[in-house]
Amino acid sequence: MESLDIERPRDGVALLTLRRPERLNALDDRLLTGGLRKALEALDEEMAVRAIVVTGSGRGFCAGADLESQGFDQPTASEAERFVRSTHRTPVAIRGMATPTIAAVNGPAVGAGLGLALACDLRLAGPDARFGSPFVQMGLVPDFGVSYFLPRVVGTATALDLMLTGRTVDADEADRIGLVARVCDDVVADALDAAESLASLPPHAVTMTRRNTYRSMELDLEAEVLEQEVRAQAVALQGSEFPARFAAWRDQVQG
């Protein structure tokens, strides 16, 4: 797709770059309603891809939905609902993928761009990264998963502060409130390093660690969370890579 670049710069790692720099990589209708989701799902299906880095070209990560998008000019409420519903398949797909994702935020991540970053498993910020949820300033409500992801990442009080004021936070504040894992001088390079590290790990362990963590935020501890841990751990203990990795870890700990 013309507005997306996909590269494989490291073993097991895919780099997906939004390529609309003149619009700060805002998502046009094609990207919003399936283009981005389909690209990510195709990478998720590739056995050779074990980690995905998402970033933007030029000065921005993603400025949200393009202001010229049809979503801002629907004739009826039902048609507006249909359009928005079609866009929401993307964050759901990202969170449901087996492959871990890392957002390398190199500039503004605003609106749906914030939702895109939040849907990823890890977020790294460059020095010029900025994050905002300006929906209320336009008379809108947060979408693209922002109202789901943001309170789970930074807590309810901070999430409401960001969503109700619409203010923008810089990279340092994002780091301080836990919105990103860390701030990096070269965010794409650091994200690729992190992705390469993830790609070297047993896929089942990575996937189930992610899924169990997300599920644990919604489920009962004893009846559901601990039960899913039991099942996942039983499979991990029988994994082909476990014996050698465990032996190496034990030797390291025991000296």
Question: What does it look like?
Answer:
By secondary structure, the protein is an alpha/beta fold. It folds into two domains: 4-199, Alpha-Beta Complex (2-enoyl-CoA Hydratase, Chain A, domain 1), CATH 3.90.226.10; 203-254. Helices cover 49% and strands 15% of the residues. The protein contains eleven helices and nine strands. It has helices at residues 29-45, 77-87, 89-96, 112-119, 146-154, 156-165, 171-176, 187-199, 203-216, 221-237, 242-254, and strands at 4-10, 13-18, 51-56, 101-105, 108-110, 122-125, 130-132, 168-170, 182-183. The strands form two sheets. A six-stranded mixed beta sheet has the order 1-2-3-4-6-9, sandwiched between helices. α9 (203-216) packs antiparallel against α10. The chain is globular.
Radius of gyration: 19 Å
* CATH top level label of the largest domain: Alpha Beta
So, the CATH homologous superfamily of the largest domain?
2-enoyl-CoA Hydratase, Chain A, domain 1
The overall strand count is 9
End-to-end Cα distance? 52 Å
What do we call the CATH topology of the largest domain? 2-enoyl-CoA Hydratase, Chain A, domain 1
Outline the low-pLDDT stretches. none
Instruction: Give the CATH architecture of the largest domain.
Output: Alpha-Beta Complex
The number of distinct helices, counting runs of at least 4 residues, comes to: 11
Q: Indicate the overall shape.
A: globular
Strand percentage, roughly?
15-25%
Give the H and E element order.
EEHEHHEEHEEHHEHEHHHH
